[in-house]
Design goal:
Blueprint lengths: L2 E2 L5 E3 L2 E3 L4 E2 L6 E2 L3 E3 L4 H13 L4 E3 L15 E3 L7 E5 L4 E5 L4 H10 L2 E2 L11 H6 L16 E7 L5 E5 L4 H7 L8 E8 L1 E2 L2 E10 H6 L1 H7 L2 E6 L5 E10 L8 H25 L4 H11 L3 E5 L1 H5 L7 E9 L3 H14 L8 E6 L14 E9 L5 H13 L3 E2 L9 H7 L3 H11 L8 H7 L2
Helix pairs in contact: 7-8, 10-11, 12-14
Length: about 450
Protein backbone atom coordinates (compact mmCIF):
# COMPACT_ATOMS: atom_id res chain seq x y z
CA UNK A 1 0.00 0.00 0.00
CA UNK A 2 1.44 3.38 -0.94
CA UNK A 3 0.72 6.71 0.63
CA UNK A 4 1.21 10.29 -0.44
CA UNK A 5 2.74 12.87 1.86
CA UNK A 6 1.69 16.49 2.08
CA UNK A 7 4.54 17.34 -0.27
CA UNK A 8 3.15 14.93 -2.85
CA UNK A 9 5.84 12.27 -2.50
CA UNK A 10 4.73 8.69 -3.11
CA UNK A 11 6.16 6.22 -0.62
CA UNK A 12 6.12 2.45 -0.55
CA UNK A 13 8.20 0.57 1.98
CA UNK A 14 11.70 2.10 1.95
CA UNK A 15 11.17 3.85 -1.40
CA UNK A 16 10.18 7.30 -2.40
CA UNK A 17 9.59 8.76 -5.83
CA UNK A 18 11.45 12.01 -6.08
CA UNK A 19 11.63 14.89 -8.48
CA UNK A 20 14.38 16.68 -6.60
CA UNK A 21 17.99 16.45 -7.79
CA UNK A 22 20.84 14.86 -5.88
CA UNK A 23 24.09 16.82 -5.45
CA UNK A 24 27.48 15.64 -4.28
CA UNK A 25 29.44 17.21 -1.39
CA UNK A 26 31.39 19.59 -3.63
CA UNK A 27 28.32 20.61 -5.61
CA UNK A 28 29.90 19.89 -9.00
CA UNK A 29 27.75 16.80 -9.79
CA UNK A 30 23.96 16.73 -9.97
CA UNK A 31 21.59 13.97 -11.02
CA UNK A 32 17.84 13.42 -10.88
CA UNK A 33 16.90 9.84 -9.96
CA UNK A 34 13.46 8.45 -10.73
CA UNK A 35 13.25 7.22 -7.17
CA UNK A 36 15.32 6.92 -4.01
CA UNK A 37 15.25 3.90 -1.72
CA UNK A 38 16.56 3.40 1.81
CA UNK A 39 16.57 -0.35 2.50
CA UNK A 40 16.96 -1.45 6.11
CA UNK A 41 18.55 -4.83 5.38
CA UNK A 42 20.54 -6.67 2.74
CA UNK A 43 17.39 -8.60 1.85
CA UNK A 44 15.40 -5.40 1.32
CA UNK A 45 18.22 -4.02 -0.80
CA UNK A 46 18.25 -7.15 -2.95
CA UNK A 47 14.49 -6.78 -3.45
CA UNK A 48 14.97 -3.15 -4.57
CA UNK A 49 17.62 -4.24 -7.07
CA UNK A 50 15.27 -6.87 -8.52
CA UNK A 51 12.46 -4.30 -8.66
CA UNK A 52 14.66 -1.81 -10.49
CA UNK A 53 15.70 -4.44 -13.02
CA UNK A 54 12.06 -5.34 -13.61
CA UNK A 55 11.25 -1.64 -14.16
CA UNK A 56 14.17 -1.23 -16.60
CA UNK A 57 15.96 1.26 -14.33
CA UNK A 58 19.69 1.55 -13.58
CA UNK A 59 20.84 1.39 -9.96
CA UNK A 60 23.51 3.37 -8.10
CA UNK A 61 24.36 3.70 -4.42
CA UNK A 62 25.45 6.96 -2.82
CA UNK A 63 26.99 7.43 0.60
CA UNK A 64 27.89 10.95 1.68
CA UNK A 65 28.69 12.14 -1.86
CA UNK A 66 32.35 12.86 -1.16
CA UNK A 67 33.42 11.75 -4.65
CA UNK A 68 34.13 14.59 -7.07
CA UNK A 69 33.29 12.43 -10.10
CA UNK A 70 29.81 11.35 -11.18
CA UNK A 71 30.52 7.77 -10.06
CA UNK A 72 27.27 7.67 -8.01
CA UNK A 73 25.03 9.70 -10.33
CA UNK A 74 21.97 8.04 -11.81
CA UNK A 75 18.71 8.81 -13.57
CA UNK A 76 17.30 5.51 -12.28
CA UNK A 77 17.15 4.21 -8.71
CA UNK A 78 19.36 5.85 -6.10
CA UNK A 79 20.07 3.65 -3.09
CA UNK A 80 20.81 5.49 0.13
CA UNK A 81 22.38 3.16 2.72
CA UNK A 82 21.55 5.32 5.74
CA UNK A 83 19.67 2.47 7.44
CA UNK A 84 22.44 -0.05 6.74
CA UNK A 85 24.67 1.05 9.59
CA UNK A 86 26.38 -0.40 12.62
CA UNK A 87 28.71 -3.21 13.58
CA UNK A 88 27.39 -6.72 12.95
CA UNK A 89 30.10 -8.51 14.89
CA UNK A 90 33.64 -8.26 16.25
CA UNK A 91 35.72 -11.44 16.09
CA UNK A 92 38.59 -11.03 18.56
CA UNK A 93 40.08 -14.40 17.62
CA UNK A 94 40.30 -13.59 13.91
CA UNK A 95 40.79 -9.87 14.72
CA UNK A 96 38.12 -8.69 12.30
CA UNK A 97 35.08 -6.44 12.43
CA UNK A 98 32.06 -6.83 10.16
CA UNK A 99 30.21 -3.60 9.54
CA UNK A 100 27.14 -2.56 7.54
CA UNK A 101 28.02 -0.77 4.31
CA UNK A 102 26.38 2.57 5.13
CA UNK A 103 28.30 3.06 8.36
CA UNK A 104 30.31 6.30 8.37
CA UNK A 105 34.01 5.81 9.00
CA UNK A 106 33.75 8.18 11.94
CA UNK A 107 31.23 5.97 13.71
CA UNK A 108 33.28 2.86 13.00
CA UNK A 109 36.48 4.43 14.33
CA UNK A 110 34.82 5.69 17.50
CA UNK A 111 33.11 2.34 18.12
CA UNK A 112 36.33 0.39 17.61
CA UNK A 113 38.27 2.72 19.92
CA UNK A 114 35.65 2.13 22.61
CA UNK A 115 36.41 -1.61 22.26
CA UNK A 116 40.17 -1.02 22.43
CA UNK A 117 40.56 -1.73 18.69
CA UNK A 118 41.55 0.11 15.51
CA UNK A 119 42.02 -0.10 11.78
CA UNK A 120 45.69 -0.09 10.80
CA UNK A 121 45.54 2.89 8.45
CA UNK A 122 42.95 5.32 7.10
CA UNK A 123 42.47 8.48 5.08
CA UNK A 124 42.16 11.94 6.59
CA UNK A 125 38.38 12.33 6.10
CA UNK A 126 35.97 10.39 8.34
CA UNK A 127 32.65 11.48 6.86
CA UNK A 128 32.52 8.83 4.11
CA UNK A 129 30.63 5.56 4.43
CA UNK A 130 32.76 2.44 4.57
CA UNK A 131 31.42 1.19 1.22
CA UNK A 132 31.86 4.55 -0.50
CA UNK A 133 35.41 4.93 0.79
CA UNK A 134 36.53 1.44 -0.18
CA UNK A 135 34.74 1.29 -3.53
CA UNK A 136 36.60 4.36 -4.78
CA UNK A 137 40.01 3.46 -3.35
CA UNK A 138 40.22 5.96 -0.48
CA UNK A 139 43.65 5.86 1.15
CA UNK A 140 45.85 7.56 3.65
CA UNK A 141 49.62 7.49 3.59
CA UNK A 142 51.85 4.61 4.60
CA UNK A 143 55.20 2.99 3.99
CA UNK A 144 53.96 -0.51 4.85
CA UNK A 145 50.18 -0.19 5.39
CA UNK A 146 47.92 0.35 2.41
CA UNK A 147 44.45 1.73 1.61
CA UNK A 148 41.29 0.99 3.55
CA UNK A 149 40.24 -1.47 0.84
CA UNK A 150 43.46 -3.45 1.34
CA UNK A 151 42.33 -4.10 4.93
CA UNK A 152 39.15 -5.88 3.75
CA UNK A 153 38.94 -9.59 4.57
CA UNK A 154 35.41 -10.30 3.31
CA UNK A 155 32.69 -8.56 1.30
CA UNK A 156 28.96 -9.10 0.99
CA UNK A 157 27.25 -7.65 -2.07
CA UNK A 158 24.00 -7.81 -3.98
CA UNK A 159 24.54 -8.76 -7.62
CA UNK A 160 22.57 -7.59 -10.66
CA UNK A 161 20.52 -10.78 -10.35
CA UNK A 162 19.37 -9.59 -6.92
CA UNK A 163 21.33 -12.33 -5.16
CA UNK A 164 23.47 -11.93 -2.04
CA UNK A 165 27.08 -12.94 -2.72
CA UNK A 166 29.85 -13.32 -0.12
CA UNK A 167 33.46 -13.19 -1.25
CA UNK A 168 36.86 -13.53 0.40
CA UNK A 169 40.24 -15.05 -0.40
CA UNK A 170 38.63 -18.48 0.08
CA UNK A 171 35.07 -17.89 -1.15
CA UNK A 172 34.59 -16.47 -4.65
CA UNK A 173 38.22 -15.28 -4.68
CA UNK A 174 38.04 -13.92 -8.23
CA UNK A 175 35.26 -11.55 -7.13
CA UNK A 176 37.16 -10.62 -3.98
CA UNK A 177 40.23 -9.71 -6.04
CA UNK A 178 38.24 -7.04 -7.84
CA UNK A 179 35.27 -6.06 -5.67
CA UNK A 180 37.28 -4.53 -2.84
CA UNK A 181 37.60 -1.52 -5.15
CA UNK A 182 34.59 -2.22 -7.35
CA UNK A 183 33.53 1.32 -8.38
CA UNK A 184 29.92 0.26 -7.87
CA UNK A 185 30.19 -1.69 -11.13
CA UNK A 186 29.99 -5.25 -9.79
CA UNK A 187 27.12 -4.99 -7.33
CA UNK A 188 25.90 -3.12 -4.26
CA UNK A 189 28.05 -3.72 -1.20
CA UNK A 190 25.98 -4.50 1.90
CA UNK A 191 28.63 -5.42 4.49
CA UNK A 192 32.41 -5.34 4.83
CA UNK A 193 34.72 -7.31 7.12
CA UNK A 194 37.93 -5.45 7.97
CA UNK A 195 41.12 -6.63 9.61
CA UNK A 196 41.64 -4.85 12.93
CA UNK A 197 44.24 -4.75 15.67
CA UNK A 198 44.49 -3.63 19.30
CA UNK A 199 44.36 0.13 19.52
CA UNK A 200 47.78 1.76 19.50
CA UNK A 201 49.30 5.20 19.86
CA UNK A 202 50.79 7.33 17.13
CA UNK A 203 53.14 10.24 17.62
CA UNK A 204 52.59 12.94 15.01
CA UNK A 205 55.40 15.34 14.26
CA UNK A 206 54.42 18.28 12.08
CA UNK A 207 57.20 20.50 10.83
CA UNK A 208 57.66 23.19 8.18
CA UNK A 209 60.30 22.41 5.53
CA UNK A 210 61.47 24.04 2.32
CA UNK A 211 60.35 22.55 -0.98
CA UNK A 212 63.94 21.78 -2.00
CA UNK A 213 64.69 20.01 1.25
CA UNK A 214 61.56 17.86 1.34
CA UNK A 215 61.92 16.80 -2.30
CA UNK A 216 65.65 16.04 -2.00
CA UNK A 217 65.03 14.01 1.20
CA UNK A 218 61.75 12.45 0.09
CA UNK A 219 63.08 8.88 -0.22
CA UNK A 220 64.73 9.04 3.20
CA UNK A 221 61.67 10.58 4.86
CA UNK A 222 59.51 7.85 3.34
CA UNK A 223 61.88 5.08 4.44
CA UNK A 224 62.34 6.38 7.99
CA UNK A 225 58.66 6.90 8.85
CA UNK A 226 55.66 4.59 8.97
CA UNK A 227 53.46 7.37 7.62
CA UNK A 228 54.87 10.41 5.87
CA UNK A 229 53.07 13.14 3.95
CA UNK A 230 53.59 16.75 3.08
CA UNK A 231 51.83 19.77 1.63
CA UNK A 232 53.43 22.27 -0.72
CA UNK A 233 51.94 25.77 -0.87
CA UNK A 234 51.92 27.00 -4.50
CA UNK A 235 53.57 30.39 -5.13
CA UNK A 236 55.98 29.68 -2.26
CA UNK A 237 58.96 27.46 -1.47
CA UNK A 238 57.27 26.33 1.74
CA UNK A 239 55.96 22.91 2.73
CA UNK A 240 54.41 21.46 5.86
CA UNK A 241 55.43 17.87 6.66
CA UNK A 242 53.75 15.28 8.87
CA UNK A 243 55.39 12.13 10.23
CA UNK A 244 53.25 9.60 12.10
CA UNK A 245 54.94 6.72 13.90
CA UNK A 246 53.82 4.20 16.48
CA UNK A 247 54.60 5.15 20.04
CA UNK A 248 54.86 3.44 23.41
CA UNK A 249 53.18 6.49 24.88
CA UNK A 250 52.04 8.04 27.04
CA UNK A 251 49.22 9.75 25.15
CA UNK A 252 49.79 13.49 24.79
CA UNK A 253 47.01 14.90 22.61
CA UNK A 254 47.05 18.51 21.44
CA UNK A 255 45.85 20.95 24.06
CA UNK A 256 42.23 21.98 23.71
CA UNK A 257 43.09 25.56 22.83
CA UNK A 258 46.15 24.89 20.66
CA UNK A 259 44.35 22.06 18.84
CA UNK A 260 41.39 24.32 18.13
CA UNK A 261 43.69 27.07 16.85
CA UNK A 262 45.51 24.70 14.43
CA UNK A 263 42.62 22.48 13.27
CA UNK A 264 39.66 24.85 13.36
CA UNK A 265 40.77 28.49 13.38
CA UNK A 266 43.73 28.22 10.96
CA UNK A 267 42.94 25.13 8.88
CA UNK A 268 39.23 25.83 8.50
CA UNK A 269 38.06 29.25 9.70
CA UNK A 270 40.78 31.58 8.47
CA UNK A 271 41.50 29.32 5.49
CA UNK A 272 37.85 29.67 4.43
CA UNK A 273 38.17 33.46 4.58
CA UNK A 274 41.45 33.37 2.64
CA UNK A 275 39.97 31.11 -0.07
CA UNK A 276 36.88 33.32 -0.42
CA UNK A 277 39.08 36.41 -0.75
CA UNK A 278 41.31 34.65 -3.27
CA UNK A 279 38.35 33.59 -5.40
CA UNK A 280 37.05 37.18 -5.42
CA UNK A 281 40.48 38.80 -5.97
CA UNK A 282 42.85 36.20 -7.55
CA UNK A 283 45.94 38.50 -7.65
CA UNK A 284 46.14 38.39 -3.83
CA UNK A 285 46.49 34.57 -3.73
CA UNK A 286 50.33 34.43 -3.80
CA UNK A 287 50.51 36.85 -0.86
CA UNK A 288 47.91 34.84 1.04
CA UNK A 289 49.84 31.63 0.28
CA UNK A 290 53.01 33.07 1.78
CA UNK A 291 51.15 34.06 4.95
CA UNK A 292 49.28 30.74 5.17
CA UNK A 293 52.41 28.64 4.73
CA UNK A 294 54.05 30.43 7.65
CA UNK A 295 51.04 30.32 9.97
CA UNK A 296 51.31 26.60 10.79
CA UNK A 297 54.09 26.01 13.31
CA UNK A 298 55.90 22.83 14.31
CA UNK A 299 54.09 20.63 16.82
CA UNK A 300 54.25 17.10 18.21
CA UNK A 301 51.43 15.13 19.82
CA UNK A 302 50.53 11.50 20.61
CA UNK A 303 47.05 9.98 20.40
CA UNK A 304 45.05 6.97 19.17
CA UNK A 305 45.08 6.43 15.37
CA UNK A 306 41.88 8.06 14.14
CA UNK A 307 42.63 11.20 16.14
CA UNK A 308 46.00 11.47 14.42
CA UNK A 309 45.21 10.29 10.89
CA UNK A 310 42.02 12.32 10.44
CA UNK A 311 41.21 16.00 10.62
CA UNK A 312 38.11 18.14 10.00
CA UNK A 313 37.63 19.40 6.43
CA UNK A 314 35.01 22.12 6.43
CA UNK A 315 36.26 24.20 3.48
CA UNK A 316 34.66 22.80 0.32
CA UNK A 317 36.81 22.25 -2.74
CA UNK A 318 37.34 20.30 -5.96
CA UNK A 319 40.17 17.79 -6.12
CA UNK A 320 42.22 15.88 -8.66
CA UNK A 321 44.64 13.20 -7.49
CA UNK A 322 46.99 10.97 -9.45
CA UNK A 323 48.87 7.88 -8.31
CA UNK A 324 52.38 7.65 -9.75
CA UNK A 325 55.18 5.13 -9.45
CA UNK A 326 56.85 6.35 -6.26
CA UNK A 327 60.16 6.97 -8.01
CA UNK A 328 58.43 9.40 -10.39
CA UNK A 329 56.81 11.57 -7.72
CA UNK A 330 59.57 14.11 -7.05
CA UNK A 331 60.18 14.75 -10.74
CA UNK A 332 56.47 15.22 -11.40
CA UNK A 333 56.09 17.54 -8.42
CA UNK A 334 58.99 19.69 -9.59
CA UNK A 335 57.38 19.90 -13.03
CA UNK A 336 54.10 20.92 -11.39
CA UNK A 337 55.84 23.67 -9.41
CA UNK A 338 57.62 24.98 -12.53
CA UNK A 339 54.31 24.95 -14.43
CA UNK A 340 52.55 27.02 -11.77
CA UNK A 341 55.45 29.50 -11.59
CA UNK A 342 55.53 30.18 -15.32
CA UNK A 343 51.75 30.31 -15.75
CA UNK A 344 49.19 32.98 -14.85
CA UNK A 345 47.43 30.47 -12.57
CA UNK A 346 46.62 31.50 -9.02
CA UNK A 347 46.31 28.45 -6.75
CA UNK A 348 44.95 28.94 -3.24
CA UNK A 349 45.05 25.33 -1.99
CA UNK A 350 48.21 23.40 -1.02
CA UNK A 351 49.31 20.35 -3.04
CA UNK A 352 49.25 17.12 -1.01
CA UNK A 353 51.78 14.26 -1.39
CA UNK A 354 51.28 10.81 0.18
CA UNK A 355 52.52 7.25 -0.40
CA UNK A 356 51.28 3.66 -0.38
CA UNK A 357 52.87 0.21 -0.75
CA UNK A 358 51.92 -2.01 -3.67
CA UNK A 359 48.76 -4.07 -3.20
CA UNK A 360 46.98 -6.90 -5.05
CA UNK A 361 43.57 -5.32 -5.84
CA UNK A 362 42.79 -5.25 -9.57
CA UNK A 363 41.82 -1.57 -9.89
CA UNK A 364 43.63 -0.17 -6.87
CA UNK A 365 45.66 2.89 -7.79
CA UNK A 366 48.55 1.11 -6.00
CA UNK A 367 47.95 -2.22 -7.74
CA UNK A 368 51.28 -3.93 -8.33
CA UNK A 369 53.51 -0.93 -7.68
CA UNK A 370 54.96 1.25 -4.92
CA UNK A 371 52.97 4.44 -5.21
CA UNK A 372 53.05 8.14 -4.46
CA UNK A 373 49.97 10.31 -4.68
CA UNK A 374 49.92 13.93 -5.79
CA UNK A 375 46.64 15.72 -5.09
CA UNK A 376 45.68 19.21 -6.24
CA UNK A 377 42.70 21.18 -5.01
CA UNK A 378 40.84 24.37 -5.80
CA UNK A 379 38.30 26.19 -3.68
CA UNK A 380 34.67 25.42 -4.58
CA UNK A 381 33.44 27.76 -7.31
CA UNK A 382 36.90 28.57 -8.64
CA UNK A 383 37.41 27.86 -12.36
CA UNK A 384 39.44 24.65 -12.33
CA UNK A 385 39.80 23.43 -15.90
CA UNK A 386 43.06 25.22 -16.79
CA UNK A 387 44.90 24.11 -13.64
CA UNK A 388 43.59 20.56 -13.60
CA UNK A 389 44.28 20.08 -17.33
CA UNK A 390 47.88 21.23 -16.93
CA UNK A 391 48.36 18.98 -13.89
CA UNK A 392 46.79 15.99 -15.63
CA UNK A 393 49.14 16.41 -18.58
CA UNK A 394 52.13 16.11 -16.23
CA UNK A 395 50.71 13.15 -14.32
CA UNK A 396 49.77 11.09 -17.36
CA UNK A 397 53.24 11.61 -18.82
CA UNK A 398 54.52 9.72 -15.76
CA UNK A 399 52.08 6.82 -16.09
CA UNK A 400 49.66 8.23 -13.53
CA UNK A 401 46.46 6.54 -12.47
CA UNK A 402 43.61 8.88 -11.47
CA UNK A 403 41.81 8.44 -8.19
CA UNK A 404 38.42 6.95 -9.06
CA UNK A 405 36.52 9.43 -6.94
CA UNK A 406 38.33 12.61 -7.97
CA UNK A 407 38.18 14.83 -11.04
CA UNK A 408 39.90 13.45 -14.14
CA UNK A 409 39.30 13.02 -17.87
CA UNK A 410 40.78 9.54 -18.49
CA UNK A 411 38.83 6.90 -20.39
CA UNK A 412 38.83 3.12 -20.73
CA UNK A 413 41.47 3.13 -23.47
CA UNK A 414 43.96 4.96 -21.23
CA UNK A 415 43.07 3.00 -18.10
CA UNK A 416 43.42 -0.35 -19.85
CA UNK A 417 47.07 0.57 -20.45
CA UNK A 418 47.56 1.91 -16.92
CA UNK A 419 46.20 -1.21 -15.16
CA UNK A 420 47.68 -4.62 -16.04
CA UNK A 421 44.57 -6.33 -14.59
CA UNK A 422 42.01 -4.05 -16.25
CA UNK A 423 40.73 -6.83 -18.55
CA UNK A 424 40.32 -9.13 -15.55
CA UNK A 425 38.00 -6.57 -13.95
CA UNK A 426 35.93 -5.91 -17.05
CA UNK A 427 35.54 -9.64 -17.73
CA UNK A 428 34.20 -10.10 -14.20
CA UNK A 429 31.84 -7.16 -14.78
CA UNK A 430 30.58 -8.85 -17.95
CA UNK A 431 29.83 -11.97 -15.91
CA UNK A 432 28.20 -10.28 -12.89
CA UNK A 433 26.37 -7.45 -14.67
CA UNK A 434 25.98 -8.34 -18.34
CA UNK A 435 22.99 -6.01 -18.79
CA UNK A 436 24.79 -3.09 -17.06
CA UNK A 437 22.20 -2.60 -14.33
CA UNK A 438 24.84 -0.69 -12.36
CA UNK A 439 26.11 1.42 -15.26
CA UNK A 440 26.11 5.17 -15.61
CA UNK A 441 27.93 7.70 -17.80
CA UNK A 442 31.04 7.67 -15.61
CA UNK A 443 31.42 3.90 -15.69
CA UNK A 444 30.84 3.85 -19.45
CA UNK A 445 33.74 6.27 -19.81
CA UNK A 446 36.23 4.58 -17.48
CA UNK A 447 35.33 0.92 -18.07
CA UNK A 448 33.82 0.95 -21.55
CA UNK A 449 30.45 -0.54 -22.42
Amino acid sequence: MSTTTAAGTAESGGSRTTGSPWRNWAGNVTSRPVREVSPASAEELAEEVRRAAADGLRVKTVGTGHSFTSIAATDGVLIRPGLLTGIRRIDREAMTVTVESGTPLKRLNVALAREGLSLTNMGDIMEQTVAGATSTGTHGTGRDSASIAAQIRELELVTAAGELLTCSEKENPEVFAAARIGLGALGVVTAITFAIEPVFLLTAREEPMTFDRVTSEFDALHAENEHFEFYWFPHTDNCNTKRNNRSAGPAAPPGRVSGWVEDELLSNGLFQVACSLGRAVPPVIPSIAKLSSRALSARTYTDIPYKVFTSPRRVRFLEMEYALPREAAVGALRELKAMVERSPLKVSFPVEVRTAPADDIALSTASGRETAYIAVHLYKGTPHRGYFTAVERIMTAHGGRPHWGKVHTRDAAYLARAYPRFAEFTALRDRLDPDRLFANDYLRRVLGD
